Amino acid sequence: MKRVGMFVWNHFTNDARVMRECTTLSQNGYDVELICIDDPNDPNVKKYEEINEHFRVLRMKRYPTTLMLLQSLYKFTVGKKWPIIPLGIIWAFCVYFLPWVVIPLTILALALLKTKARVVWIRGALILRMMIKGHRGNYDIYHSNDLNTMPQGWVSAKWRIKKKPLIYDSHEVQTSRTGYESPFYEKFEKFFIKRMDSMMVENATRAKYNEDLYGFYPYVLHNYPTEGISEVTDKVDLHKMLGLPPEEKILLYQGGVQTGRGLENLVEAYPKFKEGTLVFIGDGKIKDKLQAMVKERQLEDGIKFIPKVPLKDLPKYTKNGYLGFQVLNNVCFNHYSASSNKLFEYMMAEVPVVACDFPEIKAVVEENNIGVTVDSHNPDDIARGVNYILEHPEQREVFSKNCIPARKKYNWEKEQFNLLEVYQQYS
After folding, report:
1. How many structural domains is the chain composed of?
2. Could you tell me how far CA 275 lies from the centroid of its own chain?
3. What share of the chain is helix, strand, coil (3-state, %, to 5)?
4. What HEC string does 111-164 produce?
5. Hey, is 46 helix, strand or coil?
6. Which end of the chain is more exposed for a tag (fewer CB within 10 A), N or C?
7. What CATH number does the domain containing 200 carry?
8. Are residues 55 and 88 in the same domain?
9. Model pLDDT for residues 360-390, shown as the tens digit of each residue
């Protein structure tokens, strides 16, 4: 049985794609260890977790021990507001007798007060721990999810006498995505592209982009959910939870509440909707901003927010949607080229969509007739799409029923064989 060492730069608590990949490999002759990040702020996150007999999760300590000690010392002294003169005397005394210990600690403490230095320290130490764990694992195949785990995969797979295969699984367009505007990322990816053995991207649009940029066409592995979630019979009563009458139409957005996802435009468009309550399920950086927009416009009665729910429970919420939104904005090629997992989650729950007219998403929506596409930058056009579905209940039922044959095409049960094809090269 081939052993796989996989890296991902998150806590692995809501990463559906990586969960599907690891589970598929573990059920098809591979023994998988996923190296990810511990979350000391969540007591429910375990440092070691056994998902099944051949799939284990190893979470690396997030913060360096020295950093934690310095933070404790800082809180105990400065945080307690000790008088500056006694502190100075104690420091001078320690420097005189233990200069080789106190001076480096002082430098580190000063670095601690610098946000950027602190971030570099935390991330650098974490990357090093992941590298050491991966290298010592001596796996047969290494798998890096996204660019931020490529150094870990490269050192683990290639810095040894007998080099091991390295697979680069790029979930995003690393050279054109929100927060990655610096040209550094293109140079960084280009360096590692030459040092990996196989690459996977989410769809054909992104594969063609990669070919134009680097001269080769990578494997395509779509981010489809399992068809099994369509068989979920339990349903969370969102109407009751939100105090809505049973006949109220829920206009649903589920996913990260992040910039570039058109969520501000949904709030702007809401007053033009003929009926329904707009419900956001999820958390993210702009949630406070969205809630402030809602309050400023006095729309609290019509727009509701629910915190992020566990992935395994999400289908029970999705079923409440009269329609679902996928209205990404074209702020970068990563958004423009997305296939978007939530589009297929709506499909699995037979929820028609109001979706952006970007190539991959538009093709799925229009070819399968499961909703309407709109200009996601234009609140008026979003309202047009919503009102079309609200005013044509018979067409809404057609969209909903068309989800049933569509989900037979767009599901992980079929897509997983593309993953196994990549791995069979090294088996």
Report:
1. 3
2. 32
3. 50, 15, 35
4. HHCCHHHHHHHHHHHHHHHHHHHHHHHCCCEEEEECHHHHHHHHHHHHCCCCCC
5. coil
6. N
7. 3.40.50.2000
8. no
9. 999 999 999 999 999 999 999 999 999 999 9
Residues 6+ positions from 63 with CB-CB distance below 8 Å: 40, 122, 125
Closest C-alpha among 354, 349, 339, 350 to residue 390: 354
Q: Are residues 191 and 85 in the same domain?
A: no
**What value does the mean pLDDT take over residues 62-72?**
66
- 303 has a pLDDT exceeding 50: yes
Token digits of residue 325: 């939104």
Same domain, 132 and 277: no
155-202 residue pLDDT tens: 999 999 999 999 999 999 988 888 777 888 889 999 999 999 999 999
Q: Cα separation of 421 and 199, whole Å?
A: 12
- Residue 246 sits in the same domain as residue 156: no
* Domain match, 133 and 33 both: yes
How far is CA 190 from its chain centroid?
Answer: 23
Amino acid symbol at 67: L
Range in 58-62, 83-87, 117-121, 236-240 with the lowest mean pLDDT: 83-87
Domain that holds residue 317: 227-410
Q: How far apart are the first and last CA of the chain?
A: 9
8 A C-beta contact, residue 254 and residue 281: yes
Distance CA 97, CA 70 (A): 19
Q: Report whether 116 contacts 124 (CB < 8 A).
A: no
Is the model's pLDDT at 83 over the cut of 70?
no
